[in-house]
């Protein structure tokens, strides 16, 4: 079997298990070396959460942030995360990982109004006696900025639909509703 091309091997298909091995070429643009990795090790490495830095501006990349849970900490200033240009299937999850409602805003944006959000978030108003919820929609054609004013909890999923559109969904909990806007 050592003399078979990879394309000539039998596929495991749905019988794939986490302990199965994959062939990996480590450092292909430098000094390539053949290595192995289990499917579980690869999946865990690719899904490891990312902590957003406590800084005013963060640039998210496909390599470092896509397909992962991105956790906002309690921040000491308003923090803006700029997403890369969308592509079909490019996905990001953002959560608030603070211990109490943050005193600053979390902002997620694209590089301009030609790259925009389409979808909605459920806002749970924690200041209402009846704990009311409402849906907050983007305009679906130019809203490139999402502002979460001093949030206490959220889970937001963002998935590229095309080279210009990110689908967005999730929930936000705090007194102030999330706001979509143009740059």
Enumerate the spans where pLDDT stays under 50 for 5 or more consecutive residues. none
Count of DSSP strands: 14
Overall structural class, as computed from helix and strand content, comes to mainly beta
Overall morphology: elongated
Beta content comes to: 35-45%
Mean of residue pLDDT values: 93
Q: Please trace the helix and strand order, writing H or E for each element.
A: EEHEEHEEEEEEEEEE
Fraction of residues in H or I helices: under 10%
What's the quick description here?
The protein has 183 residues and is mainly beta. The chain has 2 helices and 14 strands, in the order E-E-H-E-E-H-E-E-E-E-E-E-E-E-E-E.
Detailed description of the structure:
The protein is mostly beta strands and 183 residues long. 7% of the residues lie in helices and 40% in strands. It contains two helices and 14 strands, in the order ββαββαββββββββββ. The protein has helices spanning 39-47, 62-65, and strands spanning 21-26, 33-38, 50-51, 57-59, 69-72, 79-82, 91-96, 106-109, 116-124, 133-137, 145-148, 153-160, 165-173, 179-181. The strands form three sheets. Strands 3-5-7-12-13-9-10 form a seven-stranded mixed sheet. Strands 4-6-8-11-14 form a five-stranded mixed sheet, with no helix packed on it. β1 (21-26) and β2 form a beta hairpin. The model has no long low-confidence stretch (mean pLDDT 93).
